[in-house]
Here is the input.
Amino acid sequence: MSLLRLRVRTGQNAYFASDQCISMVLEREVYTPYESLTAVFLGDGSEDCTAAVEVELFWNETSIFLGLADKVEKYQRGGVWFLRIESKTFTSLLTQNELEEGLHSHLTIQQLVTGFYTLPHVTSEEDPATGYIYVRERMSMWDSVASFVYKITGRYPYVDNNMVRFSLGVDVPVHEPAAALITEVGRRLDTTKLVSDYHMSDIDGNPDVYQESNPAAQQAQIVRNKQIAFDRQFLSNPQMALVYRRLVSCRGMRADHLTYAGFNNEKLGEKLTCGQQLQNKRICRVRVVFGTQGLRTSLWAYEDGFYN
Here is the structure.
């Protein structure tokens, strides 16, 4: 039996499945509020794709992905039936929902994630601290969650399958791929998201009262100025609104990465070791590819405002 198995639910207790994978890409990344899966499996032509409800991927009989049936297609080519799947975890719904505009007070992180709408399978790590959010017009739930988590914990949230997480465990697995399996190692710089200066008005609309400069952008000779209205989400500490934006603009700025043959179900926040350059660094991105070259996993460890 193949180690990769696809199962698609079409009703309360109805499924179709395949363990014959032709190609697959699974993505996990700390600044992306969902995991994503694209895959092609062999089918038999009897699958009711139009009734698909959710998509689940198993590795060695362990569920490693559960998501929406974004796109499910069956097609025949050369007398052979294929299933093509595109899916994102249910946490993607946090980017597609909005809360009522205005002030929402006395909230915990868990209440913010799960207390307004019933999003299937979506859960949250718990923290007893309470606070408020101020929802701007057209602001997604995820944007509210991200800034609220930063105010409470000083961190940026990430997704573990369908759970919103923010803590980084101490006793986590350390992954060290065998040297004989490693096909590529490297280091990367990405300055495309850097903002050099933020300017924010005060609550009365007076411009440029609050300012925040980004040394990383200045060092890279980047000039990108952003003007923003007063952010009531950070009413008690307006400068924090600009610090938060500066840190977010630095996301993934530097990264070490490697690719190896195989897969060990690496998760975000676990640790990676490889030689002298990569020593117990947090895994910030996982990309698993199955195709003509077999199964390969690429791992990234970031150095930015939230990870080092």
Summary: The first helix runs from residue 109 to 114. The chain has a mean pLDDT of 96. The helical segments are 109-114, 141-153, 215-219, 238-249.
